């Protein structure tokens, strides 16, 4: 239950409130929109099957870092750990924190820098909860995930009370390569995050069995909610209304409850964002801990406080980097967009390398697996092709921020050199 709550809490974040309008603008017809979301769900299931084999065979708090270490050695795994600390996880947490700040400011504004103030306060408060210990953090995660699901079900149900937009659902229309690529980047941004189950595999009861259940059950719940939500939005707003909306969920509720509904949506987004931040702080610090465990120069990060079962120093470093990113976003005044550009290409680059790790480990370590991915090697090869395509799309369609994120990863090379010299 805790594992499913963490994965759902990460995935059902603010992206679901940003993505439908962007997908509608690129996908065109209602049938195209649903086809893209169904394809995203299928890709996520294929990826989950690949991760289920890795996580059940090698349960470890380092997750992807541990798989890369076993498959390719210390250098690629170090660069992944560096990327996760500086770009992937911290950038994603800062992104969600900015959305939390934007919507919280709609309820009560704290001045000119209100979104950044709310964002920093949320990250500091939730990190403090994690520092207290796992028992206190997991109870909060269950509660916030329940609020997320209840709020999304309310949004889905609200479509029954609006006048239906008469729009054919079965009309597929041709899509341009750029439109399809951009739509898939945003759809898989919404689905993305289920792989975080790998980072809690070492802390699950009977991880070799339960990690498979966590991955497949959480993706099933998420895909069902997302598909029903898109049907509700198409039903209530139509594709043109979705494509022209700046806040699809708010516009849908506004048709039912008027402007007062905007407050309800703001509260829902705040709850979803908090749940996502809470879960991402939990899993993000685990990679930092694994990096400190394996490299002597960073050994301070590898200390685990048994009383409360938390990697204290890893959590504190993660907090410091997130605060710096929030300050940077506040100065730029476009925190959400900057963080999407910054993190997406790096995420898909290492997703690709982790998928290839499954194939390499099958050859290096041919021992029986608790779970073997079906249709091997077709399944991991197919997912690797998808990762490569999304890496290309995220570089081509997200702007200069993608280059900045890749450049930050490259700064880990001299740090790696210093770590290897100190070993």
Structural class: mainly alpha
Radius of gyration over C-alpha positions, nearest whole angstrom:
21 Å
Number of strands: 0
- Global shape: globular
Largest sheet: none
Mean pLDDT: 79
Strand portion, in percent? under 5%
Low-confidence stretches: none
**Number of contiguous helices:** 16
Proportion of residues in helical segments: over 70%
**Helix and strand run:** HHHHHHHHHHHHHHHH
Report how far the terminal alpha carbons are from each other: 40 Å
Structure description:
This protein is mostly helical and 423 residues long. It has helices spanning 2-11, 15-27, 30-57, 64-72, 74-107, 114-132, 134-158, 177-191, 207-243, 248-257, 260-294, 312-332, 335-364, 378-397, 401-410, 412-422. α3 (30-57) runs antiparallel to α9, α5 packs across α6 (114-132) and α7 packs antiparallel against α11.
Quick tags:
mainly alpha; 16 helices; 423 residues
